[in-house]
Design a protein that fits this description.
The structure is a single chain. The longest helix has about 40 residues, at about 165-205. The strands form seven sheets. The protein has a two-stranded antiparallel sheet with strand order 1-2. A two-stranded antiparallel sheet has the order 3-4. Helices cover about 45% and strands about 10% of the residues. The protein folds into four domains: about 1-55 and about 300-335, no CATH class; about 70-190, no CATH class; about 220-285, no CATH class; about 350-480, no CATH class. It has helices at about 1-10, 20-25, 30-45, 55-60, 70-80, 90-105, 110-120, 125-140, 165-205, 235-250, 270-275, 280-295, 345-370, 430-455, 470-480; strands spanning about 210, 220, 225, 235, 300-305, 310, 320-325, 330-335, 370-375, 380, 390, 400, 500-505, 505-510. The termini are far apart. A hairpin with a 6-residue loop joins strand 1 and strand 2. This is Ring finger protein. Pathway: Protein modification; protein ubiquitination. InterPro entries: BRcat_RBR_RNF216, LUBAC_E3_Ligases, Rcat_RBR_RNF216, TRIAD_supradom. Keywords: Metal-binding, Repeat, Transferase, Ubl conjugation pathway, Zinc, Zinc-finger.
């Protein structure tokens, strides 16, 4: 069950960190569908899965050091339109000069003034300026931008800034190459789509088309695959590959006919090669290998929890570690808990040790919840008593802010009407101990849930804080010494204008209004 879950996930995420995979799989009791769904959901909210060190190293070998993939470059340049903001004038000038030179080499048929317009229209950024020029040339007004005599095209100029030591020139060069790569990909895709349309048109004219028996769309026969049945059933490559991916998700490897005629025939190797890529083929082979091993019933068969590799091993009492011999894995794991080896520590000791960093994160969150910072100079402070109108003690600052919401304020910011405030606003006085206690508890709960979710293999009791009776007594004594907040009193009611009484023969009596 464990190995089948890992194989299904690795078929979709082959570069996932094996330790992370083991933790997530254990959290969902090795249900591969839930594991895959969880990983996808995490990616959707901006939390990509950690990748194995080996895949990262291999990627760095395939791509030059420090280089991003074309897709990553496009995303970076598209998502950062303000990348020149904050740069000094010399950097911007050098960047603009390099960008203009690169665009002039890339568009030799375009007037220099049109290149300048493209740059100015896009905040002097090379990447969007390249796309701007392409769109203009493809539009109806493109002819007006063409020179009668194009500049000599210098392909070597595309690489003139490769070895530049200036950051501005390297930045302009990276944007230019990313835009050029995207343009080539788009043109290649357009050519491929046009070729497919022409191929389908020729096939229709020659009567060499058929409907896919899965999606029922019409395709040219040279773009389809068929089963080994009698009669043959034809399918498009997209539907055939989708079936393979579904089978991998179900930890199955058999690929059978999808026809509604209840045909149970399979697909020959030459047909499978038309719709299966290397990664999908490898995943199917791994699942088949595991199935064969299970049916063989080999005694003392041990499996790597991070990949499909398996081997005969002595009992767990004799050897608690498993050394994977798969060259793409080579992980050493604990056969008791299925995680990376932690010998000589026991599984419980290893989980407790992993929990220490989680406890530290919770403690940091609790401290941060209590500490305030000056919104002007960022000086940290904590209030012991008094009102919530705080004055920063840092030299040269003296900023005044609210202890509740951290906004700069005066007395009118609070709920005390006698000092210009209004009811419902931040309290001028409250129990600082109660406020700290509530905020710290809320931060502790939130951070504990987050840490527990990221470390499902660690016992949640490790993250609990148990204070001694002595500490609790000291805290109660400290609270008792802290004076309670003053009771807020509403302003006195206005005194009505009552006529003053007059004295007669030593006695006071009220004066009737008509007697005034």
């Amino acid at each position: 069950m464990l190995a089948a879950c890992h194989a299904a996930v690795l078929a979709i995420f082959p570069d996932i960190d094996r330790l992370h995979l083991a933790q997530v799989a254990r959290q969902f009791t090795y249900d591969h569908e839930k594991v895959i769904g969880y990983i996808i959901d995490q990616q959707d909210i901006g939390r990509p899965y950690p990748k194995s060190e080996k895949s990262v190293k291999r990627k760095r070998q395939e791509v030059s050091p420090g280089a991003d993939s074309p897709v990553e470059k496009r995303m970076k340049f598209d998502d950062d339109p303000n990348r020149l903001v904050g740069k000094d004038a010399s950097f911007v000038k050098l960047y603009a000069r390099a960008g203009k030179a690169l665009l002039a080499a890339g568009f030799p048929q375009v007037y220099a003034q049109d290149i300048e317009i493209a740059l100015k229209s896009n905040n002097n950024l090379v990447y969007p300026a390249y796309k701007y020029l392409e769109d203009k040339l493809e539009g109806k007004d493109g002819a007006s931008m063409l020179r009668l005599k194009p500049r000599p095209k210098a392909n070597a100029f595309d690489n003139i800034f490769d070895q530049s030591a200036r950051d501005a020139e390297k930045m302009a060069d990276a944007e230019y190459k990313a835009a050029k790569a995207e343009s080539q990909d788009r043109k290649s895709q357009a050519m491929q789509e046009n070729e497919e349309k022409l191929n389908l048109s020729r096939a229709k004219a020659e009567g060499l088309t058929a409907d896919c028996e899965c999606c029922f769309d019409e395709f040219a026969l040279n773009r389809m695959v068929h089963c080994n049945g009698d009669p043959l059933h034809w399918f498009c490559c997209v539907c055939a590959k989708s079936q393979a991916e579904v089978q991998i998700g179900l930890s199955k490897y058999d690929l059978t006919c999808m026809s509604m005629d209840q045909c149970q025939a399979g697909f020959a190797l030459d047909q499978r090669s038309l719709f299966l890529d290397e990664k999908t083929t490898l995943a199917l082979e791994r699942i088949e290998q595991e199935s064969v091993l299970r049916m063989a019933g080999i005694e003392n068969l041990a499996k790597c929890p991070f990949c499909p590799y398996a081997a005969e091993y002595p009992s767990v009492e004799e050897n608690k570690e498993f050394q994977c011999e798969n060259p793409d894995c080579e992980m050493k794991s604990c056969r008791l808990c299925g995680l990376e080896t932690h010998i000589p520590k026991t599984c419980k000791e290893a989980r407790a040790e992993e929990g220490h960093s989680g406890r530290h994160q919770i403690e940091e969150a609790m401290s941060e919840a209590m500490i305030r910072r000056c919104n002007k100079c960022n000086t940290p402070f904590i209030k012991e008593n008094g009102c919530n109108k705080m004055t920063c003690t840092a030299s040269g600052c003296r900023n005044i802010q609210c202890y509740v919401c951290s906004k700069s304020c005066d007395y009118a910011h609070f709920d005390d009407a006698t000092r210009g405030g209004k009811k419902g606003q931040c309290p001028l006085f409250d129990s600082v101990d109660q406020r700290h206690e509530d905020e710290v508890k809320a931060a502790e709960l939130k951070e504990r849930l987050r840490v527990a979710q990221e470390n499902p293999n660690i016992d949640v009791e490790v993250f609990q804080f148990n204070f001694s009776e002595r500490v609790k007594q000291d805290e109660e004594q400290r609270k008792a010494r802290n004076p309670p907040p003053p009771v807020r009193r509403d302003p006195p009611l206005p005194v009505p204008n009552v006529p003053r009484p007059r004295a007669a023969n030593g006695r006071f009596f009220a004066v009737h209004p008509r007697m005034k």
